[in-house]
Amino acid sequence: MEAAVQAKGLSRRFGAVQAVSKLNFEVAPGEVFGLVGPDGAGKTTTLRMLCGLLDPDEGQAIVAGLDVTKELDRVKDAIGYMAQKFGLYGDLSVEENMDFYADLFGITGTTRVELKTRLLKMTRMEPFRDRMAAQLSGGMKQKLSLMCTLLHKPQILFLDEPTNGVDPVSRRDFWLILEELVRDGLTVLVSTAYLDEAERCHRIGLMDRGRIVLSGTPAELKAAMPEKCYAIRGRNLRSLQQTLKNRQGVINVELSGAELHLFLAPGTALLDIIADLDLEAERITPTLEDVLIAEIHSLDIKAAA
């Protein structure tokens, strides 16, 4: 099956900053693929190159079987792109914004009515169709952006941190809508800094410094982590964190809620690390956050060496 999205050696530099470096990955049709990483990892730049909003310095972007730099008009018909920042018109109502975008896409008559009705119902925005966009909550603004992005029925949806700054309930609702769209055959490429959202993706690529450093399903990435991971509970966690960091065989130790997550190098015995300390320790399956932090920490060590 031909990939819906392909990045082949994509690179982009802004002055002295290498934002994206020789990026390679594929997204299958009907898949939710997440680009996950810290701010500055290159997620937004990657999405903008794949959508034709930025030209790559090197490499090739293939979307819906089309070369983005050579067939941009056809690519635009096949995709929807939702940026981080709310970009609709605050002095127009929800329905007026939808009508404006329908005009842009040439959607008229009964097709327009049916699409608007379906989208308003799916997002539960029917009661707010006459409300000015500027008066919507953050979550409602994101739903309105999504509806306008979907009006021309794209095959592939690009979402750049779509729930950034949105309350947890609205984030959950947004993802329920995405899951319904994917069941109908939509392909989604989403960037996010939220690890709970990454868990909802079929596959993810962990990005750091313009590269994908790990890729796979969330379960695969957690199972493949070579370091042993332990939950550490005790008093004065910050002081305990510094003590553990300085011990031989400790790869990293990070605060995680009311406990520490301790990563030990293969072959290191836990008792050798904590025998003289008053604490509780339990072997755990690492979270995606653990995987991301451990990988970036490892890369930092290599870069400093």
Q: In CATH terms, what is the architecture of the largest domain? A: 3-Layer(aba) Sandwich
Q: How are the strands of the biggest sheet laid out side by side?
A: 6-7-8-3-9-10
> Uncertain spans, ≥5 residues at pLDDT below 50?
none
Overall 3D geometry? globular
Beta strand %: 25-35%
Number of helices: 11
* Number of structurally distinct domains: 2
**Sheet bearing the most strands, described?**
6 strands, mixed
The first-level CATH class name of the largest domain? Alpha Beta
Alpha carbon gyration radius: 22 Å
CATH homologous superfamily caption of the largest domain:
P-loop containing nucleotide triphosphate hydrolases
Order of helices and strands: EEEHEEHEHHHEHEHEEHEHEEHEH
Mean pLDDT: 90
Report the helical percentage. Answer: 25-40%
The end-to-end distance, rounded to whole angstroms, is 42 Å
β-strand number: 14
List keywords for this structure.
four-stranded antiparallel beta sheet, alpha/beta, Alpha-Beta Plaits, Rossmann fold, 36% helix, 14 strands, 28% strand, globular, six-stranded mixed beta sheet, 305 residues
Question: How would you portray this structure in words?
Answer:
The chain has helices spanning 43-50, 72-78, 94-105, 109-122, 138-150, 168-183, 195-198, 218-223, 237-245, 270-274, 288-304, and strands spanning 5-14, 17-27, 32-36, 58-63, 66-67, 79-82, 156-160, 187-192, 203-208, 211-216, 228-233, 250-256, 259-264, 280-283. With 305 residues, it is α/β, with parallel strands linked by helices. It has two domains: 5-221, P-loop containing nucleotide triphosphate hydrolases (Rossmann fold); 226-285, Alpha-Beta Plaits (2-Layer Sandwich). The strands form three sheets. The chain has a six-stranded mixed sheet with strand order 6-7-8-3-9-10, with helices on both faces. Strand 4 and strand 5 (66-67) form a beta hairpin. The longest helix is centred in the C-terminal third of the chain and has 17 residues, at 288-304. It is globular, with a radius of gyration of 22 Å. 36% of the residues are buried.
